[in-house]
Design brief:
This protein is an alpha+beta fold. Helix content is 39%, strand content 20%. It has ten helices and eight strands.
Length: 213
Amino acid sequence: MPTSRTYGDACGIARALDVVGERWALLVVRELLLGRQRFSDLRRALPGASSNMLTDRLRELESRDVVHRHRLPPPAASVVYELTESGRELEPIVLALGGWGLRVALPATPLHLSATSVLLFLRGSVRPNPEAPAAVYRFELDERVWTIRTQDGQVQIEPGEPAQAQAGLRTDPATLNALLSGDTDLATALTTGKAVRTGDEAVLCQLLRPADS
């Protein structure tokens, strides 16, 4: 059930942790950084959280004006969750925490990597040529479709189908992470069946250059 526990500390750090310090709360925020999601999407992205636990965290975050819950209009008519304006202010904090966490040893296997997590890595690590033409990509990860746009040296990512894409990739988050980190290359991923490419391969390779290249 939702918790109302508090540190009883006047410090701003403690007061912030009263809101987002419960287990899974910041990972819910992470999953919503790229756009709204359904409950089922969040469950798939956070397999270690039970349905009851996730429901409690969402209710707490909604009551604290971090998350907003609403129903989409027909024909979708599904309930989705998205960050409020206040919740979106957590983005640089969550990303900075993630950068700090990369220095921490990996936990014991098995490891899970969500689509949102690796897409945030892509957005933060890829540096498109600012003089290159704008490009639109269709990525499919964990049975969800994402639109990625590059323009003026910036990367934008949002859930949903692009109206038109020059290139696309269907794969799993771990393979995409390996492509971005340079642990594998696109040709190998395609040959082994871990990825399926659509559209212009050269345009796709421009996006998938390893982060340190």
